[in-house]
Design brief:
The complex is a heterodimer of chains A (96) and B (655). Chain A is built from 3 helices and 2 strands, in the order ααββα. Chain A has helices at 15-44, 46-49, 59-89; strands at 53-54, 57-58. Chain A has a two-stranded antiparallel ribbon. In chain A, a hairpin with a 2-residue loop joins strand 1 and strand 2 (57-58). Chain A is elongated and about 60 Å long. Chain B is mainly α. Chain B is built from 27 helices and 5 strands. Chain B has helices at residues 2-14, 16-39, 44-65, 71-76, 83-94, 97-110, 115-139, 144-151, 155-188, 192-207, 211-242, 247-267, 288-302, 306-309, 318-336, 339-353, 365-371, 385-395, 411-419, 424-462, 468-491, 497-521, 527-550, 552-558, 575-580, 610-627, 633-642; strands at residues 375-377, 380-381, 405-407, 562-563, 599-600. In chain B, the strands form 2 sheets. Chain B has a 3-stranded antiparallel beta sheet. Chain B has a two-stranded antiparallel sheet with strand order 4-5. In chain B, a hairpin with a 2-residue loop joins strand 1 and strand 2 (380-381). The chains are: A mainly alpha (96), B mainly alpha (655).
């Protein structure tokens, strides 16, 4: 994604909003990275991971059947919390 | 009067836990009552009817109680649905007959490769929460086309968004109504066409009077039924076999046993290396490329499907929209991480108690499904021991080998109660769960289509001055019209019904995702850019689908398509030979045509057509936007506004 256009003359985003959005964007990339890792990267190594067997589960199979899913669920609760913290930090969160 | 309604409403919201707790207790009591009825000799057929009609009656009552005459209640349930409950509703909205009945069967057949669907249908929620959902909630839309119209210059963008929405939702809803018909006909012995229209009546009763509000509260009720129904048989099976009531842990043992048994079967000549597909081995049914392509398309499709996105319009705040996505995935996860356990237990049962057994020792659960033509042994329906013995004698084998056995994927979940030796009441429970899954998804989809037609086309484009009563009447009439059209399509049993679900994701991904993401994340995206992106991305995806599926000869002759590879890397079809055949240039070919869905570009299966459409969409939005003037000052301020949760929604609908 291209960086936000900064040379706009007609509309000026406030410094606070810009800082808020910069942090939000960083968080977005971090979570897309985690998503990409658990959605794709791990599974590229499935044949190798399958050689490790835990409680009957070959690890490659386990990651696709449960491991990545658990990661996604945990990640989403974490993301909701982190984004809310950013929103509060810059005073743009909703009232409780 | 208004305060009266809202106070009643708040009482209701505050007591949700109590209400749904009582509902769950009532449902369990109902199951126990039926179990007692079974013990005193009430026939199975009657139990099946009681299950189906009582559950549908409960949904209908909730639907009627939630009727409303307010526009915001009709379209977004008054934006008062708490995160956790909206998560449950989304879970039911999401999990269709294909998830409930089909997923475990797919995993049974494909082993590891089937997990592409499990991953694809869960990971997309990360994209929903991080990239799209909460921003649309802040915007304050009633529908996804609402956002497209506001951000991208009015009714033309709205119209395109409606086309995308209808294209992906209609194919999807047809598959759901079809699923309803299958379940009802199988368990109630109804004629399939009649069953389709009975299911339709159930769907309409839930959604017609109350719109989103009614659908929300019924979907929560349906989620409870479907998750109880899905987990009960397998928890009992796990406890019986391994002494631990957590099948998700114990099926590891089943997988180890399957792998050992596979080696044994090869050694004993019960299977050949050619027909045995090891359960845990990756990329033997799909190529690695298509495995990841399916995951990607299903994930991105999730974040583009209007009936899912609109569920997050109903939360009280942006914060709760984010929490709600997390809850949604949690509730979906409960079912999806159990599906591989169903597959493993069933496979172990088939591999140890059918394959390699002397025919007279075969366990009788199989014959119920053989009668319906869903299990075949030695090439004939396994209707009875007699039939199996005769068929296998004709083939000349005294034991059932792997190649002698065929099973329809729907049977895996439906037969587990019998494999576990459970009473019929559990089978009836599973049927009720499957029905809840199909009905709830159909409800959400129909509402998405009818809302787009009534709100976006009728109110916003044809008659912006229509009074509330008229708007809601139009919405309800359209809901019925769309539902009947979908049921009529389903009743013809279209051949591609399951592939269509995959196509819906690809179309949504190609048409919606680039415009939604760029509209929120890039202020410089212009109207011209978005319109080019939607037309280009969606256009090429639909072109790829239609040509590869229905005009494969033309694809090869004029558009440079070649055969898709099989997992070993060799071509699926011999193109030179197929092109020389007299039927090579047939149009609207049947699924059995030698090249149908077997040709394409870059070896990409047409289920993943979105993979071709989406990059085109992104590229067009980027390039065309940069060629024009940057969006107005007001538009840029508006984008700033949707990025901050605080403050009023951008779009203020009059009620």
């Amino acid at each position: 994604m291209p960086p936000m256009s900064q040379q706009t003359t007609t509309h000026q985003t406030s410094a606070n909003d810009q800082a808020h959005w910069r942090k939000t964007t960083n968080l977005m990339w971090i979570h897309l990275g985690i998503w990409f890792f658990f959605g794709y990267v791990v599974h590229m190594f499935a044949p190798a991971l399958n050689k490790i067997v835990i409680a009957g589960f070959p690890l490659g199979f386990y990651m696709a059947a449960q491991g990545s899913l658990i990661a996604f669920v945990v990640q989403l609760f974490l993301f909701a919390k982190q984004q809310d913290k950013i929103d509060r930090e810059f005073g743009v969160a909703e009232d409780d | 009067m208004a305060t009266q309604t809202s106070r009643d409403g708040n009482d209701f919201i505050n007591n949700l836990g109590k209400i749904y707790g009582m509902y769950t207790g009532g449902f369990l009591a109902f199951v126990v009552l039926l179990a007692i009825l079974e013990q005193i000799g009430v026939p199975n057929r009657v139990l099946g009817y009681l299950f189906v009609f009582f559950t549908i009656a409960v949904y209908a009552i909730i639907g009627v109680l939630s009727r409303t005459a307010q526009v915001s209640e009709y379209y977004v349930a008054g934006r008062r649905v708490p995160a956790l409950y909206n998560g449950m509703a989304t879970g039911a909205d999401w999990m269709s007959a294909a998830s409930f009945v089909g997923m475990a069967g797919t995993l049974f057949l494909l082993g590891y490769d089937g997990l592409a669907w499990v991953l694809g249908w869960t990971g997309g929620y990360v994209l929903v929460s991080v990239l799209v959902g909460p921003y649309l909630r802040k915007f304050g839309a009633y529908t996804v086309p609402d956002f497209m119209s506001f951000r991208f210059g009015g009714n033309f963008a709205r119209f395109l968004a409606v086309i995308v929405l209808v294209a992906c939702s209609f194919t999807y809803v047809t598959a759901q109504i079809y699923g309803t018909g299958i379940i009802a006909s199988r368990f109630l012995g109804m004629n399939f066409e009649v069953a389709v229209f009975v299911g339709l009546a159930g769907i309409l009763l839930c959604s017609m009077l109350g719109g989103m509000r009614a659908v929300t509260w019924t979907q929560i009720a349906q989620y409870i039924v479907l998750i109880v129904a899905y987990l009960t048989p397998i928890v009992i099976l796990s406890t019986k076999k391994y002494g631990i009531p957590i099948p998700e842990l114990t099926y590891g043992q089943a997988i180890a046993d399957i792998t050992a048994r596979e080696a044994q079967m090869l050694k004993d000549g019960l299977a050949t290396a050619a027909n045995l597909k090891p359960h845990i081995q990756p990329w033997i049914n799909y190529t690695a490329l298509n495995f990841f392509a399916i995951i990607f398309c299903m994930m991105v499709g999730t974040a583009s499907l209007p009936h899912i996105l609109m569920r997050y319009f109903t939360t009280p705040s942006v914060r709760e929209a984010r929490q709600s996505v997390a809850w949604s995935l949690f509730f979906i996860f409960l079912l999806y991480f159990s599906a591989p356990a169903y597959a493993a237990f069933s496979k172990l049962e088939v591999y140890t108690n059918i394959i390699g057994r002397g025919i007279e020792d075969i366990r009788p659960w199989m014959f119920t499904w053989g009668e319906l033509g869903l299990i075949q042994v030695c090439g004939k329906n396994a209707a009875s021991l007699q039939a199996v013995m005769e068929a296998c004698k004709a083939v000349g084998t005294g034991v059932v080998r792997l190649q002698d056995f065929t099973i329809n994927t729907d049977v895996i979940v439906l037969s587990t109660p019998e494999i576990a030796g459970l009473p019929y009441v559990i089978s009836g429970l599973v049927a009720a769960g499957g029905l809840a899954a199909a009905l709830s998804t159909a409800d959400g989809l129909l509402l998405a289509i009818a809302n787009a037609l009534s709100h976006d086309i009728y109110y916003k484009m044809i008659d912006p001055n229509a009074p509330t009563v008229k708007r809601l009447t139009v919405a309800r009439v359209l809901l019925v019209v769309v539902a009947v059209a979908a049921a009529a399509t389903a009743a013809t049993k279209p051949a591609d019904i399951l592939a269509m679900v995959g196509w819906a994701f690809s179309l949504a991904m190609a048409g919606n995702f680039p415009a939604l993401v760029m509209g929120i994340w890039w202020k410089r995206a212009t109207t011209a850019g978005a319109i080019a992106g939607i037309i280009g991305g969606f256009g090429i995806a639909i072109f790829y689908l239609v040509v590869t599926r229905y005009f494969p000869g033309y694809g090869v002759a004029y558009f440079g398509m070649s055969s898709l590879p099989n997992p070993a890397g060799a071509p699926l079809v011999d193109i030179a030979k197929a092109m020389a055949a007299p039927n090579a240039m047939d149009t609207w070919v049947a699924a059995s045509h030698p090249m149908a869905s077997k040709v394409g570009w870059f070896g990409i299966n047409n289920i993943a057509a979105g993979l071709i459409g989406m990059p085109v969409g992104f590229a067009l939005i980027y390039v065309v936007s940069l060629m024009g003037k940057e969006p107005s000052k007001e538009m840029q301020a508006f984008v700033d506004e949707i990025r901050k949760p605080r403050g009023r929604t951008v779009l203020q609908e009059k009620d």
